[in-house]
Amino acid sequence: MANLRAGLIGVGMMGRHHARILRDLDGVDLVAVADPGGDPHRVAGGLPILADTEALIRERIDIAVVAIPTRFHAAAAFALADAGVHALVEKPIADDSGLGREVSARFRAAGLVGAVGHVERFNPALQQLRLRLDAGDIGAVYQIATRRQSTFPARIGDVGVAKDLGTHDVDLTSWVARSEYRSVSAHTAFKSGRSFEDMIAVTGRLGNGVIVNHLVNWLSPMKERLTVVTGERGTYIADTAAGDLTLHANGTAALEWESASVFRGVSEGDVTRFAFPKKEPLRAELEAFVAAVHGADTELSTMDEAVHVLEVVEAMLASAHENGAQVLIEPTTA
Fold first, then answer.
1. Around Cβ 143, how many Cβ atoms within 10 Å?
2. What is the pLDDT of residue 259?
3. How does strand 4-9 pair with strand 63-66?
4. What are 181's strand-pairing partners?
5. Mean pLDDT along residues 259-271
6. Which residues form the GFO/IDH/MocA-like oxidoreductase domain (predicted)?
7. What domains, with CATH codes, occur in the chain?
8. What is the pLDDT of residue 1?
9. Do 208 and 222 meet the contact criterion of CB atoms below 8 Å apart?
10. Separation between Cα atoms, residue 164 and residue 317, nearest integer Å
């Protein structure tokens, strides 16, 4: 079987990593790179830097990765779908959910693999977490809370923290819990002198009844990527920055300390930090994309799922505009 001819649109901070991995994937040849801004990280190697998506398509590519600013995602995706090219579009799928639905419909009509780069699905800690939740290791899940905080990224200028970072938390939460969102309430802050929010706090509920909370900002001097899942028999903490998963089990030993035994709820139990293989999430995602093009079932985020994520984020921002009013989210019908 001939290698897939791959094209990459965008070689900025994210695109440079796609270029590195695409060059190293079995069954893939990176044959074309496009970026109107040039090659600031010098990742093109001996390939010429093409001007746009159309020039990339003329290189007879089979697959493409779109890693350009959000406002250009839809136009690039439409061109690729019309040319019969399978595509992985970095998140979010588009500027807004309406455009996202059009992109998804275009790929579906063409019979193409259309995926979106919600790379946290391939974080080893979250993959282990989902397996253990599916096995019922902590029983019924009550709450999923995430914290995603870091310094301000000068490279992001066309969206706020909700669409850039919050989309990760929405997708991973829905994926881990196997349930869509049904309602959200949110508050935002604007502290960086821009028209886009740089902090958002969200509470909500999934269709299966799980309560969710998200704290996301670009205003912290440290980087934090945590997902905390609380259930009837314990709490998992996934540190996705390190790829670590820890279980804090509910206590089972009888308490003999009188002042501590007054509390009738959960007590401390064993703490276990799990060991498991840790593959780079982006490499795992791109391997899954190639496998999907060859017809395999994968954990890739579909474009329809990515549209739901964007609808949830839009509901968050609408809620914040109404001072935290609850916004209901319709079930996906696609």
1. 13
2. 58
3. parallel
4. 206
5. 71
6. 127-236
7. 4-119+283-301 (3.40.50.720), 121-277+310-328 (3.30.360.10)
8. 78
9. no
10. 13
State the distance between the two ends of the chain, measured CA to CA, in whole angstroms. 34
Q: Quote the pLDDT of residue 252.
A: 75
> What average pLDDT does the chain have?
94
**Residue whose structure tokens are 């900002």:** 217
pLDDT at 260: 55
How confident is the model over 159-185, as pLDDT tens digits? 899 999 999 999 999 999 999 999 999
> To 5 degrees, how large is the angle CA 133–CA 138–CA 142?
85
Q: Yes or no: say if 233 and 250 are a contact pair by the CB < 8 Å rule.
A: yes
Cβ neighbours of residue 22 closer than 8 Å, sequence gap 6 or more: 6, 8, 28, 30, 65, 286
3-state secondary structure 51-120: CCHHHHHCCCCCEEEECCCHHHHHHHHHHHHHCCCEEEEECCCCCCHHHHHHHHHHHHHHCCCEEEECHH
What average pLDDT does range 271-284 have in this prediction?
A: 97
b/e burial code for range 317-329 (CB count within 10 A of at least 16 → b): bebbeeebeebeb
Query: Alpha-carbon distance 251 to 234, whole Å?
Result: 9
Cα angle: 137, vertex 138, 140; to 5 degrees: 115
**Which tens digits make up the pLDDT trace of 23-82?**
999 999 999 999 998 998 898 888 999 999 999 999 999 999 999 999 999 999 999 999
Residues, the chain, total? 334
Helices 73-82 and 97-110, packing angle to 10 deg: 10
DSSP string, 157-219: -SS-HIIIIIHHHHHHHHHHHT--EEEEEEEEE--SSSSS-SEEEEEEEETTS-EEEEEEES-
Confidence of residue 266 (pLDDT cuts 50, 70, 90): confident
3-state SS class at 15:
helix
